[in-house]
C-alpha cells in the first residue's frame, strides 16, 4: 500500500502549518499571522521512529460562515479526512476551547477516522498541562500539550500516532517523478491539477492569488508515480508586497528547483507575455526539463490555420526554449490533458540521459567536418580536442578546446544545435562547458602534485 496519510485539522490560526513544518522537518508550509493563508490541502512526507507517512495540511475550518473561500476550504478539509488513516485536531491552548472547536469535535466524532487532540502553543510544560486539561470537554480522548514552534510534547503525540499506522512491511515506496505546475496568476494551473488528478484537489477561483502554498499531489499511471506540485501564480516582482504572496512566490521558485519536469502553463488568450519570458529564463537557469502547456484552447475560435499561427507565435517568442515540447489543451474540458504525462515521461528520460564519450566525439567530428571552427584576425583557429558528458539532470557536456575565446556565439550555437539534431535531448536544456588548454594543464599539474604527495 502507499504511504498512509495523516490529516491536520483545526480552526484558522491555531498553528496547523507550523505543526506541519515541524513534522516534515522543513519550512515549506507558509506561516503568516493572518487567517486563511492555507486554503488547499497540501501533502508533505514525514516520519517518526520506523514509520513513514504523508502529512496533509488543510485550511482553517469554519462551519457557520460561507463567505469568500470558506466553503471551498471545508470541501478540501473533508476530502483530506476521507483519505486519511488518522486525523490530528489542532487547538489553541492559550485561547482555550471555543465554539468553533466544539463544532469541529462534533464533526470528527461522526467520521470513521481515529482523531488525536493536539493542544498547541503550550510553551511552558507545567502551564501546558493545565491548558490541555481544558480540552477534555471535547470528548476526543487525551489532549496532548505541544509547542509546534519549539517541538516540545510532539514526541508523546507521535508515539500515539504511529499505533494507528500500518506496519513498515505493509508499505511500499516507488520512485516519484516530480512535476511542478508553474505560470502567471489565472492561467489555469489549479484547473490543470484537478484535470490531471480527476478530482477537485485544488481550489479554482477567478480571484487572482487563490493558490498560496505549493500543493503536492500523488498520481499513479502505468506503474509510475508522479508528484504534481501546483504553485502560486508568479507576478512581476514590483507588484508583490511582503506577506502571503511574497512567501507563495518563493515556494513556487523552490518547486521549480525540486522538480524533475516543469509544466509551464501559458494562457493562449494572453499569448506569451514579458512575465512568461522571465519565467522561462528561470526554468532554464534552474536546469529543469519542461513541457509548454498552452491552456484555454477551447476559448479560441479556430479554422484550419489557427494551430499553425499559434505555434509560430510560440516559436517566435520562446525561440530560446525551442527544445521543449508544447501542447495545446483545455484544463476546463479535459481536451488533450491525458497526453501531458506522456510528454513528461519523455522529458524526464532525456533529462536523466547519459551519452557515451565515443558518441559525443562522433557528433563533434561530424560537426567540425561540415563547419570548421572560426579563425581570429591573427590567423589563430579554434580547435576542439574532445568532449565528454560530465553530468545529467540537466545533461552537461564539457568541450576541451585550445582557447574558448576563439569560439564565438554563432559557432557555440551551431555545436549546441548539432547535439540536439544528432542526440535529441527533447524536453530538457543542455549545458556546454568550453574548457581551454590552460584549464586542462592546471588540472593535470594539480593531479600530478596530488599523486606525488
UniProtKB/TrEMBL annotation:
The keyword Repeat applies. Pfam families: KH_dom-like, MMR_HSR1. Belongs to the TRAFAC class TrmE-Era-EngA-EngB-Septin-like GTPase superfamily. EngA (Der) GTPase family. Keywords: GTP-binding, Nucleotide-binding, Repeat, Ribosome biogenesis. Associates with the 50S ribosomal subunit. It comes from Stanieria cyanosphaera (strain ATCC 29371 / PCC 7437). InterPro entries: G_ENGA, GTP-bd, GTPase_Der, KH_dom-like, KH_dom-like_a/b, P-loop_NTPase, Small_GTP-bd. Residues 4-169, 177-352 form the EngA-type G domain. GTPase that plays an essential role in the late steps of ribosome biogenesis. SUPFAM superfamilies: P-loop containing nucleoside triphosphate hydrolases. GTP 1 binds at residues 10-17, 57-61, 120-123. Transmembrane segments: none annotated. GO terms for molecular function: GTP binding; ribosome binding. GTP 2 binds at residues 183-190, 230-234, 295-298. This is GTPase Der.
Amino acid at each position: 500500500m502507499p504511504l498512509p496519510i495523516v490529516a491536520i485539522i483545526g480552526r484558522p490560526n491555531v498553528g496547523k502549518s507550523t505543526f506541519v513544518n515541524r513534522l516534515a522537518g522543513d519550512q515549506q508550509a507558509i506561516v503568516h499571522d493572518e487567517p486563511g493563508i492555507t486554503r488547499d490541502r497540501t501533502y508533505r512526507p514525514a516520519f517518526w521512529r520506523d514509520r513513514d507517512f504523508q502529512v496533509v495540511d488543510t485550511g482553517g475550518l469554519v462551519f457557520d460562515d460561507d463567505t469568500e473561500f470558506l466553503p471551498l476550504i471545508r470541501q478540501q478539509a473533508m476530502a483530506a479526512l476521507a483519505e486519511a488513516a488518522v486525523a490530528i485536531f489542532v487547538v489553541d491552548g492559550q485561547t482555550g476551547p471555543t465554539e468553533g472547536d466544539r463544532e469541529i469535535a462534533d464533526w470528527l466524532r461522526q467520521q470513521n477516522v481515529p482523531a488525536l487532540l493536539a493542544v498547541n502553543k503550550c510553551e511552558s510544560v507545567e502551564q501546558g498541562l493545565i491548558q490541555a486539561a481544558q480540552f477534555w470537554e471535547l470528548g476526543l480522548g487525551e489532549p496532548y500539550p505541544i509547542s509546534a514552534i519549539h517541538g516540545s510534547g510532539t514526541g508523546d503525540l507521535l508515539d500515539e500516532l504511529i499505533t494507528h499506522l500500518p506496519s513498515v512491511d505493509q508499505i511500499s515506496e516507488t520512485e516519484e517523478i516530480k512535476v511542478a505546475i508553474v505560470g502567471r496568476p489565472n492561467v489555469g494551473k489549479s484547473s490543470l491539477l484537478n484535470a490531471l488528478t480527476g478530482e477537485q484537489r485544488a481550489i479554482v477561483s477567478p480571484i487572482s492569488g487563490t493558490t498560496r502554498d505549493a500543493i503536492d499531489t500523488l498520481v499513479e499511471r502505468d506503474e509510475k508515480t508522479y508528484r504534481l506540485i501546483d504553485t502560486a501564480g508568479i507576478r512581476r516582482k514590483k507588484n508583490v508586497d511582503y506577506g502571503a504572496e511574497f512567501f507563495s512566490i518563493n515556494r513556487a521558485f523552490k518547486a521549480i528547483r525540486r522538480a524533475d519536469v516543469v509544466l509551464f502553463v501559458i494562457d493562449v488568450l494572453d499569448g506569451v507575455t514579458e512575465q512568461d519570458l522571465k519565467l522561462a529564463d528561470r526554468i532554464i537557469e534552474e536546469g529543469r526539463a519542461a513541457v509548454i502547456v498552452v491552456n484555454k484552447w477551447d476559448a479560441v475560435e479556430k479554422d484550419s490555420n489557427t494551430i499553425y499561427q499559434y505555434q509560430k507565435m510560440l516559436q517566435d517568442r520562446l525561440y530560446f526554449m525551442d527544445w521543449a515540447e508544447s501542447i495545446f489543451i483545455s484544463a476546463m474540458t479535459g481536451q488533450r490533458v491525458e497526453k501531458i504525462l506522456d510528454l513528461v515521461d519523455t522529458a524526464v528520460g532525456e533529462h536523466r540521459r547519459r551519452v557515451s564519450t565515443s558518441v559525443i566525439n562522433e557528433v563533434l567530428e561530424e560537426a567540425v567536418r561540415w563547419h570548421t571552427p572560426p579563425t581570429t584576425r591573427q590567423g589563430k583557429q579554434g580547435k576542439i580536442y574532445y568532449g565528454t558528458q560530465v553530468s545529467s539532470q540537466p545533461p552537461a557536456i564539457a568541450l576541451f578546446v585550445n582557447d574558448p575565446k576563439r569560439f564565438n556565439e554563432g559557432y557555440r550555437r551551431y555545436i549546441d544545435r548539432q547535439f540536439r539534431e544528432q542526440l535529441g535531448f527533447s524536453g530538457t536544456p543542455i549545458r556546454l562547458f568550453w574548457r581551454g588548454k590552460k584549464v586542462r594543464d592546471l588540472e593535470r599539474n594539480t593531479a600530478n602534485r596530488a599523486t606525488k604527495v
